[in-house]
Amino acid sequence: MPIEIKMPSLSAGMEAGTLARWLKAEGDMVVTGEIIAEIETDKATMELEATASGRIGRLTVAAGTADIRVDSVIALILAEGESVLAAQTPAAAPTPVEAELAFEAAPAGTEALQALRARELRAFASPLARRLAVQNGIDLASISGSGPRGRIVRLDVERASGQPALEPVKPAAPTVAPAQVDPAIVEPHTRVPHSSMRKVIARRLLEAKTTIPHFYLGVDCEIDALLALRAQINAGRDTDARISVNDMVVKAAATALRKVPAANAVWTSEAILLLEQVDISVAVATDGGLITPIVRRVDEKSLGAISREIRDLATRGREGRLKPEDFQGGGFSVSNLGMYGVREFSAIINPPQSCILAVGAAERRPICRGDDIVAATMMSCTLSVDHRSVDGALGAQLLAAFKAAIEQPMTLLV
Question: Which CATH fold would you assign to the domain 198-413?
Answer without folding.
Answer: Chloramphenicol Acetyltransferase (3.30.559)
